[in-house]
Amino acid sequence: MFENLKKNKKFNLLMELKKNGIYDKAVLNVIEVVDRSLFVDENLKQKSNLNIALPIDCGQTISQPLVVAHMTQSLNLNKKLRVLEIGTGSGYQSYILSKLSRFVYTVERYSSLKKKAENLLKDLGANNIFFKHADGGLGWQEQAPFDRIIVTANAPEIPNILVEQLVNEGIMIIPVGDDYNQQNLKKVIKKENKILVENLMQVRFVPLVEGKLHK
């Protein structure tokens, strides 16, 4: 009974994603296959197939599936690409990325979130994800350049330091805005010494905080 209800909710979620502009079959297939309930606390598991953001530890959130799908689709991924993720969080987005790219390098400022996500994803057999406890605003210079960068926290402006870590023709997806209610998800394409910027959708993300790390 519970499994049938779970399947129905996942079907409804996929239909909602399609109605809201998610057309990439590979992205839809991964969203369908990956069990989002693994990435949230026990009391929230029944809500895991709803198109809503959910709280996780350290005052952070797991983004709503529509936003995850839009960000992933906009990266134009393939299995040859190296992806930098700023903000590991629950590890859900990391796992989605790992299914669609060659390598994922993910940076998290909260040590406890990094460890929890790393343990879970290793248990799931995601051996192409590399983790770092560090200031995500600085990227991961030692592993740069990257084909793609995805930022899961809001920045007041497009960070030059991350643009510099992109390959030519590379793509970065990042929410940008001055406050919580005025954020635009932007697609940034690096072209030689210039960037092309496209607004994708309005979003709400926690801020990209620079400096102090957390346990």
Structure commentary:
This protein is of the alpha/beta class and 215 residues long. The protein has one domain (2-203): 3-Layer(aba) Sandwich (Rossmann fold). 29% of the residues lie in helices and 27% in strands. A 7-stranded mixed sheet has the order 5-4-3-6-7-8-9, with helices on one face. It is globular, with a radius of gyration of 16 Å.
How are the SSEs placed, and which strands pair?
Blueprint (H helix, E strand, L loop, with lengths): L1 H18 L5 H9 L20 E2 L5 E2 L2 H10 L7 E5 L5 H9 L2 E6 L2 H13 L5 E5 L12 E6 L8 H4 L2 E12 L5 E9 L2 E10 L12
Parallel strand pairs: 3-4, 3-6, 4-5, 6-7
Antiparallel strand pairs: 1-2, 7-8, 8-9
Number of helices: 6
Approximately what portion of the residues adopt beta-strand conformation?
25-35%
With strands numbered from the N-terminus, the spatial order across the biggest sheet is: 5-4-3-6-7-8-9
Indicate the CATH topology.
Rossmann fold
Q: Give the % helix.
A: 25-40%
How many beta-strand runs? 9
SSE string, helix = H, strand = E? Answer: HHEEHEHEHEEHEEE
CATH architecture grouping: 3-Layer(aba) Sandwich
Give short descriptive properties of this protein.
215 residues; alpha/beta; 9 strands; 29% helix; 27% strand; globular
How would you concisely characterize the structure shown here?
This protein is of the alpha/beta class and 215 residues long.
